[in-house]
Specification:
Layout: E1 3-9, H1 14-27, E2 33-37, E3 44-49, H2 54-63, E4 68-70
């Protein structure tokens, strides 16, 4: 069963997404996916996953110097 993780981020531009893209792609498995909604005021990152934990996504985004907070 898939879980949808939702995060508020400081990522506001497509070129910033390209910075974190390789890291996010390494985290996900074959059936997982992720996307950003930069039109949302919280610059939402959604991760649909069966295995990834929220902490791994938080660390991955923060590693690149961006703010990231899980929305519950």
């Amino acid at each position: 069963m898939k879980t949808v993780l939702v995060f508020k981020t400081s990522i506001t531009k497509n070129n910033e997404i390209k910075i974190v893209q390789p890291t996010l792609n390494r985290l996900i498995t074959k059936n997982d996916r992720w996307n950003f909604d930069l039109e949302d005021c919280d610059n939402i990152l959604r991760v649909e996953t069966q295995m990834i934990k929220a902490d791994a996504v938080l660390k991955a985004i923060q590693h690149h110097g961006f703010y990231c907070e899980e929305l519950l």
